[in-house]
Amino acid sequence: MKKRYKLLISILFIIMLVAGVFIYENDYAMQEKDVIIRTDQGDLAGFVALPQEKNEGVVIFVHGDGAQNATQDGGYKPLMERFAKQGYASVSWDKPGVGKSTGNWLDQTMDERAQEVEDVMEWAENQDDINTEKIILWGASQAGWVIPKVQQKREDVTASILVGPAINWLRQGAYNTTEEMKSEGKTEDEIMQVLNNDKKESDLILAGATYEDYIEETADDSLSEERYAFVQKNISADATEDIEKIESPVHIVLAENDLNVDSNETEKTYKQLLPKSQLTVRIISGVDHSMLNPALHESQILTYLSAILAPKDTLVSEEYLDYCEELIRHM
């Protein structure tokens, strides 16, 4: 009887401990609220994280590729909390067609994505609880073709933080294919064969081939018709011209082990186009494109458990979070 009692107490203690960790790790030091951001293009389901004390400015979050919701399933919240601790609100939103946002993100060009960011900025300027004296644009990956479009034309953008931004759509695709195949142990001949085939497919898309003609010519059905249309609208994306027109500070954050975006090309391009006084570049050690905690890279199960049980302290690279917070502190 005593053994059963001790076992029961032990089980209850473990349950209470796990519950306590869960509550702490999912309770962020910021005021969270859902909003509707009305624009000429439609309604966006937004998420706002407000600082609890100081009110220094606002960070506008710009998604990368894919059907992203406002917080990236909570993945943005550890970073938003860091910004809140420095007195900055964060504003993000479900992409069009995701969650309660109207429209379809696959219908957008990069110019239209940039206009969407401007619409959100203008919405934020009309909110009593958001200070827009300092507006920081934060964005990852595909946002590297969006944020420079906004930053180079808006004087009210204080600075940008670009995480793993690509420069050129086609070169980025070729780099990603090459690095992924290398990681799988493919030979140079195998890689070259795939790259040559990808080029033929890209040439068809650039030439304006219909989806039906593309399928018939290539037998590649990996793209849905909507995705094909999105690629066709944006395959010529190149950030170079927009970057060289930027006049406010740019902070580039790169991954040491990025298989998606060529960190060397990104660093070289920004350093060529912007003066030293306007640019900082930091490479985060051990991480891949996602900026997740390097200890989680090899295990989807650990990543999943971390995202649920302890996202605040274990999901995202600590070096990355510390650096982004330090950037904001000195804005």
TrEMBL record:
InterPro entries with a match to the protein in the record: AB_hydrolase_Est10 (IPR053145), AB_hydrolase_fold (IPR029058), Hydrolase_4 (IPR022742)
Keywords, in A-Z order: Hydrolase, Membrane, Transmembrane, Transmembrane helix
Residues that span the membrane, as ranges: 7-24
Name assigned to this protein: Alpha/beta hydrolase
Domain Serine aminopeptidase S33: 54-293
GO molecular function, a single term: carboxylic ester hydrolase activity
Domain of life: Bacteria
